[in-house]
């Protein structure tokens, strides 16, 4: 696939300039705009790559293939394809929520492509298991998926404020709700099942990239227990607990995210 086709498929934006590239990847139901307040801080020193996961934002919806994207590996393939076309080596991958695990998979497959990983609110598995607390029971996840399938807009309006946290700043929840509502309902339903039923615990010990984990307080999607688990299972990783609440510090506490990344890289 040529670069023009990739640009259309993933709505790729290249900003800034510098000897090293930093790629930002968004979470479920979002798009690259979730990184606007963070990414602009790096344009002076880095080449910045922003993109939309297929099925989100201004990506090419016609490129969505339920078979290819039946696991997070399909999205990791896209990240690698973008990286190869941009000749990325020793780059920095910043992934929020589900894209944290997409970045993990991409870095394992192409260890020379990403020298550094920044995982923002990562979770390798959302469902509780023996000896593991992911935060949700299997019934919780099935209820969530059924609610989304039956009423996408209602689910978005109800869930976005809970995911965002920060009830004293309702405008943040509105922004996230609007983002969820812009996502194609059928694709959102499919991607939600892939996201919330994935299990990438066995991939964590295979990570070789330098890794920073950014954890928020009172995150109903990825609790501090989950952040600790990721930290324990990625060798040499660094865990930073932000003075922020909710699951989207890229919106609620962008300066803290910027400072933590700057200190790391």
Indicate the CATH architecture: 3-Layer(aba) Sandwich
What general outline do the C-alpha atoms trace? globular
The helix-strand sequence is: HEEHEHEHEHHHHEHEHH
Output the CATH class name: Alpha Beta
- Rg from C-alpha positions? 17 Å
Q: Ranges with pLDDT <50 over ≥5 residues?
A: none
Number of helices: 11
The N- and C-terminal alpha carbons lie at a distance of: 31 Å
CATH 4th-level superfamily: Alpha/Beta hydrolase fold, catalytic domain
Strand content: 15-25%
Fraction of residues in H or I helices:
40-55%
CATH topology: Rossmann fold
Structural class: alpha/beta
Structural notes for this entry:
With 265 residues, the chain is α/β, with parallel strands linked by helices. The protein has a single domain (3-126, 199-264), classed as Alpha/Beta hydrolase fold, catalytic domain (Rossmann fold, 3-Layer(aba) Sandwich), CATH 3.40.50. Helices cover 43% and strands 16% of the residues. The chain is built from eleven helices and seven strands. The protein has helices at 3-10, 36-39, 72-85, 98-109, 138-150, 152-164, 170-182, 185-196, 224-233, 249-252, 254-264, and strands at residues 13-15, 20-25, 46-50, 91-96, 114-120, 210-217, 238-245. A seven-stranded mixed beta sheet has the order 1-3-2-4-5-6-7, with helices on both faces. The radius of gyration is 17 Å and the shape is globular. The two termini are 31 Å apart. The mean pLDDT is 94.
